Amino acid sequence: MESLVIPALILVAVAVAVVLASRALGKRKAAQDAAPRQAAPGAAELARTAAAKLSEAEHRRIYALIAQGQAMAAIKLYYEATGDGLRASRDAVGALASHPQPYRSPDAPGSAPEDDEDDEPQRFPYRYRAIASKGDVTREVSSNMLNDEIYGRIRTLARNGDAEAAAAALTRHSDISMKQAREFIELLDD
User: Fold this and answer.
1) Quick check: helix, strand or coil at residue 146?
2) Is 132 helix (H, G, I), strand (E, B) or coil?
3) For residue 121, is it within any domain?
4) Which residue ranges does the record annotate as region Disordered (predicted)?
5) Segments forming the whole domain that contains residue 86
């Protein structure tokens, strides 16, 4: 009987150590998950710089890829378009996704992105259809004031938790009410 006491004590000590270690790791993971994710300082400036390096077609295509959730393809396109390193391309596309930038032609006078929000939305010669669904609920917005870039910015706002701004942008670029826009935005949280 005495020969089993020491191995039993060792087994109990190991079990206690495993339980304590798993609790500590669980608390650490919960703290990391609960901490709000913040963009790196200077991310907005990085986004402005990254957007300035792109042609209009590249800018439009990268935002279309971001809006479609194809981050790797957007990084690859940015990498090929600018010749920046892979890590710099990844950071630039992340900044562009976090801080959407309008296209600015190199010869146009610089103006703040906030100035664009006050202008009348541009009307395109085609109707753009945006569809969102969750379960059995499907909503569609069709407008000639939407395109991939604008819809990408709206989706980015919704994914970043700014549903009110996303709904306001959607009503501004379509002919739907704020209530309908909020219902549409609720379906976007993938």
Assistant:
1) coil
2) strand
3) no
4) 97-121
5) 43-101
